[in-house]
Amino acid sequence: MVINAPFCIKVIDSVSRGGYLVLYMKRSATESPDGKNPPLKMILRRGGLGVLFLVLGTALATFAINIGMVMAARKYVHSDIADIPNRTAVLVLGSQTRGTRLSPVLQDRVDAGIRMMENQKGEKLLLSGDHGQIYYDEVNAMRLYVLDAAPAIREEDIFMDHAGFSTWDSMYRARDVFEVKDVLIVTQEFHISRAVCMARSLGLDAVGYGVNQDRFRGPSLRSWQVREYFARVKAFYSIIIKPKPRYLGDKIPITGDGRATWI
User: What is the pLDDT of residues 4-34, one digit of tens each?
Assistant: First the structure.
């Protein structure tokens, strides 16, 4: 068999060129002509690192806010009634109701508020919650419960804040609508640090009573704790920006007659 040398040279040359072309195309996808990383790959690499740093930074900031808020409130939060300093107002924060029936969480809060009044830890009882709809009314449900469970508390000492749609709104309105200067806040342990920090950021001389939550276990308690973890971040924003509540309205001094709020 006779091999045509020129033909072989052409084939080898073509194969070499084809291989070089393939190699060049592969290199072009990963390198720029000057041998450095191409913009696309560099962007992807830097973008991935940027996302990673963003996620880590956000997680770290969230953790720091939570730890900082709990630590800042610690010296103002009490679990023993005997240690609680007296305040003008006992503020009970609302939670879910069904008709006039209090949820277990809210009943524990109201029972604790009653104990504060019975132990002379406050002069006035301020019940703050959501009454933004005709058929949903946390505050009147709380008031009816107090009247039934603690008839010794004078009616004129029971105030209702119908627009306590959030913890921030309740604190802001306590100061600006009810003219509260010093307050004892009553809510569960998982919630009390945030509530106290919010109140004190608004200039209120606030202390808190952390209602025992041992009877709440399992998924319910864990879901509240997870929610609270992120709620503290939102609270940090409110503390810095200090947004106004959804409603303010006419002033109703806490030193007056609470029956003026019974609607």
Answer: 444 333 433 443 444 444 444 445 444 555 5
pTM (2 d.p.): 0.80
Q: What angle do CA 46, 51, 53 make, to 5 degrees?
A: 90
Q: Which of 176, 197, 196, 159 is nearest to 245 (CA)?
A: 176
The structural domains of the chain, with segments of one domain joined by +, span: 78-261
C-beta separation of 105 from 189 below 8 A: no
* CB 97, CB 103: distance < 8 Å: yes
How confident is the model over 168-215, as pLDDT tens digits? 999 999 999 999 999 999 999 999 999 999 999 999 999 999 999 988
What is the predicted pLDDT for the residue at 214? 86
Q: Can you tell me the distance from the alpha carbon of 152 to that of 176, in angstroms, rounded to the nearest whole number?
A: 29
Q: Which residues contact 41 (CB under 8 A, 6 or more apart)?
A: 30
- What is the full DSSP assignment across 215-259? T--THHHHHHHHHHHHHHHHHHHHHHH-PPPS---S---TTS-GG
**SS3 string of 113-155?**
HHHHHHCCCEEEEEEECECCECCECHHHHHHHHHHHHCCCCCH
Q: For domain 78-261, give the fold.
A: Rossmann fold (3.40.50)
